[in-house]
Design goal:
This protein is α/β, with parallel strands linked by helices and about 400 residues long. The protein is built from 16 helices and eleven strands.
Length: about 400
């Protein structure tokens, strides 16, 4: 049928009036944008990734259609509109991709290509404008975190505000190295954890799980075990740190950004601070030795609620994922001091400086005396938790929970 139609058109002279002219310069720019996308150092947010996917599909699909009218071929190309049935509710990823593509229905190929090119260009431009990470001599620079020495203070500063300071695997490894480096540094007597932007830290960057969505069972197992080793070393670096560790939280904290707080010696927060440990809702389990430190700090019932989700208690915080505001966190002993947000930087750093001028060896010995009482318990809990969470990361329940979270509609 199609061959006959083309023959008819050819017999009448030319297909020029029936075939849309292909813009080779536009196609070349589109292909270059696809190559440029791979140059991004960080994966875009899920919403942006879905938009990229949808534009690519809309711009790439070009289906041949056999349409005849009075013996002439009047339409040879059709737009890349989504086709087929919408995936079921439990197929979170495919459903999200389908919905993203469906939103572009009717957009012409050239328009989709231009939007794709512009979006990739904007992502590259934003990344190029991001300042390079700062470091100190002897430490490897890590994207998303800055290391600096200010007088007697060694500062580890999360600097990824556009991603709410979520922790990548490189950041985990970099902070682990920095904590041991600070422990052995002769110039400093105090270590500070801080961050840039309005959000202290949103915990684990869930894009760390992105590859697992399409990986084989064996590959998922390998990735989970590798991540488990990274997590165990990260937590152990906090446990082993031999100097006073002060954490400054100007805004909300999530997940591991919360569970490591009991491993600090002082936690100063602004009144805009709140925290949550959503392990149960993501099909995961507690980490950072919190199964040991939270009950110790809050008492068994309260710690469970924190991990699960009931009223302020360690039970509610850890087991149930109950959200705590600054006042609740202070009552439970998770926070040492709450400061008005407008005065946070000034008052928090005043406390840091006051501690940093104290005799350094005395600070170190006192810190170790307090930590040694619980070192074995914390280390054992860290190992047990990491073994369990590696299993959870490989479970279907966890995969479905994370997929549902990553493809949720934002309010």
């Amino acid at each position: 049928m199609l061959r006959r139609a083309l023959s008819v058109v050819a017999a009448r002279g030319s297909t020029t009036n029936f075939l849309p002219a292909r813009s080779f310069s536009s196609q070349a720019a589109f292909e270059k944008a696809q190559a440029d996308l791979k140059k991004l150092k960080e994966e875009p947010d899920n919403d942006v990734k879905l938009k990229i996917y949808a534009l690519f599909k809309q711009a790439s699909f070009c289906r041949v259609v056999e349409t005849l009218k009075r013996g002439l071929l009047i339409n040879l190309f059709q737009s890349g509109d989504v086709s087929g049935s919408r995936p079921g509710m439990m197929d979170f990823v495919k459903r999200a991709k389908y919905d993203a593509h469906a939103k572009l229905k009717g957009i012409a190929k050239d328009d989709a290509q231009k939007k794709y090119i512009d979006l990739v260009s904007s992502l590259l431009g934003a990344e190029a404008a991001t300042p390079a990470s700062k470091s100190v001599e002897g430490l490897t620079a890590v994207p998303g975190v800055d290391f600096s020495i200010k007088g007697k203070v060694f500062e580890i500063r999360l600097n990824r505000p556009a991603k709410f300071n979520a922790l990548t695997l490189d950041m985990y490894n970099g902070i682990t190295e920095a904590l041991y480096f600070a422990s052995n540094n002769k110039e400093t007597s105090v270590t500070v954890m801080s961050s840039a932007g309005d959000f202290y830290c949103s915990g684990n960057d869930l894009s760390n799980f992105a590859k697992a969505a399409t990986a084989s069972k064996e590959e998922v197992k390998e990735m989970a075990e590798m991540a488990g080793v990274v997590l165990q070393k990260y937590t152990q670096a906090y446990i082993d740190h031999n100097k006073p560790l002060i954490t400054l939280c100007q805004g909300p904290a999530v997940g591991i950004a919360v569970t490591v707080l009991p491993l600090s010696d002082m936690v100063i927060v602004s009144d805009k601070f709140n925290c949550v440990t959503p392990f149960a809702s993501l099909g995961q389990s507690p980490e950072a030795a919190s199964s040991y430190s939270f009950p110790l700090l809050m008492g068994p019932v309260k710690a469970s609620e924190s991990l699960l989700k009931i009223s302020p208690s360690h039970c509610q915080v850890l087991l149930m994922g109950r959200k705590l505001d600054a006042a609740d966190a202070a009552k439970l002993g998770l926070v040492s001091m709450v400061v008005p947000h407008a005065e946070f930087e000034q008052k928090a750093w005043k406390e840091v400086e006051a501690m940093s001028v104290l005799p350094p060896e005395s600070l170190r010995l006192n810190k170790m005396l307090l930590r040694d009482i619980h070192r074995d318990g914390l280390t054992k809990a860290n190992k047990t938790e990491c073994e369990l969470i590696v299993q959870r990361w490989q479970s279907k329940e966890c995969a479905n929970a994370i997929a549902a979270f990553m493809t949720r509609k934002k309010k």
